Amino acid sequence: QLQLVESGGGLVQPGGSLRLSCAASGFSLDYYSIAWFRQAPGKGREGVSCISSLRSGDGSTQYADSVKGRFTISRDNADNTGDLHMNSLKPEDTGVYYCAVTDRSRFCDLVTHSYGRWGKGTQVTVSS
User: Fold this and answer.
1) Half-sphere exposure of residue 126, counting CA atoms within 13 Å on the CB side?
2) For all residues of the chain together, what is the average pLDDT?
């Protein structure tokens, strides 16, 4: 069964850190771009960060302006995973975080309709 499973969400105080992980099963992520999106209550889904494939692309990354300097995306092709390291978390980072992948383009972007395979999400709550 082809699936993506996110983990690592939880409750954290402002200024804290979390590491989200996206694990793929049933297929290899080697030729896929990996992206993280989030959805806050009552808001639309927004792109947070993405990383291109090292095989078909150049491993380049993109970040939403709101998370630049605080979040870092990485991938581990050996483990078939992609991670999002989140530091200096703010209450406005609260939401459900989704992992998504695509092999339609050599380079990643933060557009939801570029991605055809999604995980079910993991909740991140930043609150004191």
Assistant:
1) 18
2) 96
